[in-house]
Amino acid sequence: MSLPSVDVVIPTAGRPSLRTLLEALSHQPPPGRLIVVDDRREPTGPPLPGLAGRVEVLRGPARGPAAARNAGWRASRAEWVAFLDDDVVPTPTWTRDLLRDLSGLGSDVAASQGQLRVPLPAGRRPTDAERGVKGLETARWITANIAYRRSALERLGGFDERFPRAYREDVELGLRAVRSGLRIVGGERTVLHPARPAGPLESVRRQAGNADDALMLRLYGRGWRREAGVPTGCRPRHLLVTTAGAAALAALAAGHRTPAALGAAIWLLGTAEFAASRILPGPRTLPEVSSMLLTSALIPPAASAFWILGLLRARGARPVPGRPEAVLFDRDGTLVLDVPYNGDPERVVPVPGARRALDRLRAAGVAVGVVSNQSGLARGLLTPRQVAAVNRRVEELLGPFGVWEICPHGPEDGCGCRKPAPGLVLRAAARLGADPRRCVVVGDIGADVEAARAAGARAILVPTPATRPEEVAAVPEVVPDLESAVDLVLGGGG
Q1: Euclidean distance between the first and final Cα of the chain, in Å?
Q2: Is 86 a catalytic residue?
Q3: Is the C or the N end of the chain the one with fewer CB within 10 Å?
Q4: Which chain regions cross the lipid bilayer (predicted)?
């Protein structure tokens, strides 16, 4: 059995721990390319001096780890892309174990999750921060040690770049993968994740992740934690304690002492219980206890504020639709300039950028087709031979299409194929072997959009001067040209 091709992608913000990671890999046969994505906003040189010759360093987009990982895997051409975080240490057999984990996996397997171990200091109880890192050992789908099949990343559209932190972006991709019918399996390769010292307020800063949880709720509903194996956490208690404290302050300001005292008592009891739950399992040193008392008072309002802010920002959010199986184009006004009832191949003129846009889809393995109303046939203004000749000329100029679906009827015929009816889209998807829900329809008028919606497909509008303003206003995805539409399709729509 031949070994799979694998590239390793490591996003970094320049942390010194990257040197340890790369040195560990330098003593092992590399599985493929080592791609470090330097995601610092203003990099002043290589991520770590003296190591640039061992790896390929890409300039990252500086929009967070999700965008950095997308930049890394899109630079790869291997069958598999293995992701590592820049603060882990691969074991001496990691490369060999990686290749063994990936060998022979079925095509329904999107990813292989490696193992992670957190060594804790001996001779004392772990601190609150160390226990938090220890929890990563049982986390599902984390990118500290996971390999995705590149074709699965293309199909899914990659990581959702609306997640700006190293928090939940990995769970979101994993959940999207399993919901699409793919599998994520376990592997034997292992990395170590040292529990490095944390600042006294680090636990408060981490509450920004509550905004990402709010986005997950908007995207996947209340059951997302159960599906992803994510613990419930303390947010309900934080919201209660924060509400009690705010109510106590408001009552006190209004001169209502009894309600103020009740609210203060609930706040104090809730804060004390939270602090005790963090102090008792720990080393109970004076610095640790002092830090726990302070941060236990600050965490509930911080968590609540980020949660509410996240809910507001995530209004209307939808999951990344991922890479479609097919893109179906309207012909006249979308692929070629609109010449009414054109039966002359010499009058076919592609819109600017059409060939480049189509070739990008073909190169990405996305099927392309045409769905076109041709009422000139019903009106006797065109013959089938003329329509076929024009379509051949379109292909001569723009390249081959996997399917052509033409409606020969007029508006008064009441057929099921003429857009805005879904027939053309459904027939084209069936001939391509594609699920209509995994198709995109690109057109220039409202009828194209309505046909897509009726078929369950995604719609992208590329307006022309003939497009009515109300049609543009009614469509959520509007772009100025075909190349921008392809950017939206290949980028996952995020």
Answers
A1: 38
A2: no
A3: N
A4: none
